[in-house]
Structures are given as C-alpha cells and as structure tokens.
Design goal:
564 residues; 7-stranded antiparallel beta sheet; alpha+beta
Length: 564
C-alpha cells in the first residue's frame, strides 16, 4: 500500500514539474487559455441567471438581456381614444378596441396590459370575456360592488405580424338588485371601463438610436419643439398629430424628453439627431410619426375619395349581440373629408337576425341630435337598407350621425325580458356627396381652402400656450389634404396666426390697410355648436377695431390671394 501511495505522489510531482515547464516555455499563451476558460464559465453563469430571473413587467425604464447580450426594449402603445370613455354598459354588451401595431421590423414578444374598472350592482353576477383578433383568450367572473381588474393577455407571433390587434370585450350577466326582475328588465346595473392606462406592450431588439424606435419609445404626450424652428410649421405639425389622435405638447427650450423637430421637406422623412431629438421632414415626416404612434386604424389624411365607407370613419362594422336597441355612431369632421365637400346622403345597409312573426324592426337616424328619419321594416327580413338625406344646413365642422335599430318584439316571461338579437352595420354603408353644397359659412370656407395652396404665417413668436391654442383652432377647419407653404408671397390663400394684442399687425400683414383687404377672421370662441366664430371682413373701421377681441385671444386672419 505504501508503494502505491509513493507511485501516486511521484506521478503528481511529475505532472506539476511538466506543467510549470510548459507555462514558462510558452509564456502568456497558456495563461491566457486558463483566463479564457474562467471568463467563459462566468459568462455562462451570468446568462443562466438572466434567463431564469424573469422580469417585473413591461416599461421603457426596464431593459432586458437575452442570452447573447442583445438589449430588448419594451414599447407601449396607449389605448385608443385616450380622452374618451371606453367600455361596456349593462348586460349583455360588447365592444371592440383596435390597437395599431407599430411598423417596426420585428418583435420578440408582446401582450395587452389591461386595466379594467368593474362596477356591478349588489346581488349581481356576470362574466367578462376577452378576445384577441376574434379568438377568446380569457374569461373573468365579475364580483358585485366595485373592483379593479388587471389582466395581461399574451400575444402570439401571428398577432404581432398583423397591422392591428383587435381587442374584443363582451359582458353577460344579471343585475337583479335583490328583485325578482332586474330594473327595467334591462340589466343596467353594470359598468366595465377600460382605463386609459391600458396599453399594447411589445418587446423589440431594435436599438433606440433608430428614429422609428425612438418615436415609438417616446413618452406620451409627444413633445414638439417651438425653439429654433419655424413656428408656423410646428403649429401645423401639432394640429395634424392631434387630429390623428396623438397627444402632442408644444414645448420651449429646457424640455428633457425626446423632442420632435418640424423641418422642411427632404429625402429622409425621419432623422435622429445627436441630442436624441427626431426631425420630421415636411408632411411625409409627420405622416411617418402618425403611422408609428396612431392607435386607431384610420388617419384623417387617408380619406381620399368619395363615397366613404363607414368603416373608414372608425365605426364598428362587426356583428353584435344586443337586447332591445343597437346603436351605431358615425363621426366625421368636414375638414377630414375629400376636397372638403359636405356629405348630403347616408346609405345604410344592416344585416340582422329575423324576428318572430308579427314583429318589426324600427330604424331611427339622427344627425347631431336632430331626428332625420324613422322607418319600420318587417322582422322577417334579414337585410335592411335605407338612404337618408343629410341636410347641409344642419352640419357643423364636427358631426355625428346616430343609427338606432330597435327590436319591437314584446318582452317574454314574468320579467318581460326582450329576447337577444344580432345585427351588423355592413361596410357597404357609406357617406355620399352630390350637387347640393353650402355657399356660405364653414362648409364653403373649408371647400375654398381645399381647392388651393395655403401660406401659413404669423405676426410674431408665440408662447407654448398660445401656439397650442392656435394648433387646436387650425385643426378645426384646415383641410387634411391641404397643400401648405411657409414662404411669404406664396399660396392661393394666406392664414395669418396671431393674438388679440397683435390683431392690427395681422391686418397690416394681410394688406388690409391701404392694400388688398383681408377676407375673413376666425376666432376660437363665440361660434355656435362648438364651432369657432367665422366673421367676414369688409375693410370697414368696425372690422379693424373689434371690441369683442381680448388681448389674450388667439385668432386667424384669412386672405384670398386670387379671384374666388
């Protein structure tokens, strides 16, 4: 046994001597090999920890790391219609919310982060169904009283390859409130709100130093610079972004977040600058930002020709279950419509489930709160069509047509409950325009501006608050497809942005004193039905000195540079 141990000790000693000789003779190569082996072991351990440590949720303040050290950034697309209520009211009810997927090259993962506020009457019960692109993904039992529900719905690669992700919400249940029959037999004691902080979260490996990714990653509202730029160009860009549903602030120097810079047209729509700001080149740059940040499916500038399908106007055209009455709203702004023309007809096509013998469908159509037409249709027919005239005199800058389909079937059972029905507003429903067009007022003004190029100028530098108010005012009436110019003396029309304190200077700039007269004045307040006040100027002293204009007011002077 001793001899065996002596042999082992001799072998170890020999190995040590040979190894030392090799290290001495080969210099740093052998030692570097050992170091590389050690570093590889540490890297393997680090990646193993990263792969299994998990994350706490999406957000721009959190960068994940893949097994090959590629940074992964999570971007958030806010819920559409940010300033409006979105959700379900009563049982049964259903709605669809469309999130636009930012057109980047690739995504590694994505999910819908939903925040729902549920209010259910005492002794009520119900279920909320959540679907994505028509496929049921989750079902949640609703508790009575009020509760906040946070839901994350994972998205597949197929979902992320689509231009939009369609979120479907449907609620079913009862709100008896301790009674044998629900109040009004309509189950109205339920409200489920999809909160504004709900968002589509997508994770990409594209670097933030790419301008497209920087735009998607920028915080909301977007910051549009007023410093060291053409302020008229920045104000025009702000109104175009806001009309596309993108929250935008006009900011001065000192803003730390990523800023947008409105610049003249060039071959590159978007350019990332050294300071981290993104330059938008003319209309193509602004439209590129709209494509990256827009939550809804259709931008105003996309309405190019008549007739207009109701689907182009963001109206729900999928089949819906309902009980009693189904309502559709068709919103439109005159300035968003092709050539600024005013629609004078609405063609309605509806497909509905058939009713029991002897029962009718009742169709009601109203425009901005004015009832236009009511008509009955036999419940035995499944296709309902009606053409309704839209009076030009009743239309404003912003309009909404409401279509209501009423099931006149009598209630059933002890609770007099109406049966469930289905209906779909078909995409063949459309707005049409004809010969009848306005000759005065806002309708005529929008059509004139849409027929030529527009020079946008101002009397002096504006504060962010003044510029923001002017952007809102301009966005009310400026045609979406207007051809803009910013060089003095150009354009078929001139729009001069100013304030009450500089009204006289604006008239002089328009040539109203001793020269060509300004033709119209647009004030942000004083109009009817939410429209700005449009005043035709006649060159008189009363036009030049209006006592109803305060120094803090923002206004726009209009001049027609050619024969109109």
């Amino acid at each position: 046994m001793r001899d065996l141990w002596r042999l082992i000790l001799l072998a170890l000693t020999s190995f040590a001597l040979v190894g030392g000789a090799m290290s001495y003779s080969r210099g740093s190569d052998f030692r570097q090999t050992l170091i590389e082996i050690s570093d590889h072991g540490r890297a393997l351990a680090r990646n193993t920890v990263t792969a299994f440590s998990g994350t706490t949720g999406p957000g721009l303040d959190q960068t994940q790391t893949s097994s090959i050290d590629t940074p992964l950034v999570t971007l958030r697309v806010p819920r559409p219609k940010f300033g409006e209520w979105v959700g379900l009211m009563g049982f049964p009810d259903e709605t669809e919310v469309v999130f636009a997927v930012p057109p980047l090259d690739s995504y590694t993962s994505g999910q819908l982060d939903l925040v729902l506020d549920s209010q259910l009457a005492h002794d009520g019960d119900g279920v909320l169904q959540i679907s994505v692109n028509g496929t049921l993904r989750q079902a949640i039992v609703l508790d009575s009283a009020q509760q906040t529900i946070n839901v994350s719905v994972p998205l597949s690669n197929e979902d992320l390859q689509r231009p939009v992700v369609a979120l479907g919400l449907a609620a079913h249940g009862t709100t008896s409130s301790g009674q044998t029959c629900p109040t009004e037999a309509g189950n109205w004691g339920s409200v489920i709100s999809l909160e504004p902080q709900s968002a589509l979260a997508v994770t990409t490996s594209e670097a933030i130093n790419d301008p497209r990714t920087a735009i998607v990653a920028a915080a909301s509202p977007l910051a549009l610079s007023l410093s060291d730029v053409s302020q008229p160009m920045a104000i025009w860009a702000a109104q175009r972004l806001r009309r596309a549903g993108i929250a935008t602030d006009l900011v001065a120097d000192g803003h730390e977040a990523t800023r947008l810079i409105a610049s003249a047209a060039s071959s590159m729509p978007l350019e990332l600058r050294d300071a981290g700001d993104v330059a938008m080149s003319g209309a193509s740059g602004v439209d590129a930002v709209v494509a990256l940040r827009r939550s809804d499916r259709v931008a105003p500038a996309a309405l190019a020709s008549w007739p207009l399908s109701v689907q182009q106007l963001a109206t729900d055209t999928t089949v819906r279950n309902f009980r009693g009455t189904k309502r559709w709203t068709i919103p439109y702004a005159l300035a968003d419509l092709p050539q600024g023309r005013v629609p004078d007809r609405l063609a309605i096509d509806i497909r509905a489930s058939t009713l029991a013998a002897g029962n009718d469908w009742l169709l009601r159509v109203s425009l901005d709160g004015n009832l236009l037409q009511t008509q009955r249709f036999a419940g035995s027919t499944s296709d309902i069509s009606l053409v309704v005239d839209l009076p030009v005199a009743l239309q404003h800058l912003d309009n909404a047509v409401t279509v209501e389909l009423v099931d006149t079937s009598p209630g059933e059972g002890a609770c007099n409950r109406k049966p469930d029905a289905q209906a779909q507003l078909l995409t063949s429903s459309r707005l049409e325009t004809g010969v009848q067009q306005p000759v005065a007022g806002w309708g005529a003004m929008v059509q004139k501006l849409a027929a030529g190029s527009i020079n946008l100028g101002m009397t002096g530098a504006m504060t962010p608050a003044q510029a923001s108010a002017l952007a809102d005012l301009l966005g009310k009436f400026l045609p979406a497809d207007a051809v803009m110019t910013y060089q003095a003396g150009e354009g078929d029309f001139s729009l001069i942005l100013t304030t009450g304190a500089q009204y006289g200077a604006a008239l002089r700039l328009a040539g109203s004193v001793g020269g060509i007269q300004a033709d119209a004045l647009i004030l942000s307040k004083g109009g009817q039905n939410g429209d700005p006040l449009l005043v035709q100027l006649d060159g008189s002293e009363a036009s030049r000195t209006r006592p109803d204009i305060a120094e803090s007011d923002v206004l726009i002077v209009v001049r027609y540079n050619g024969e109109q």
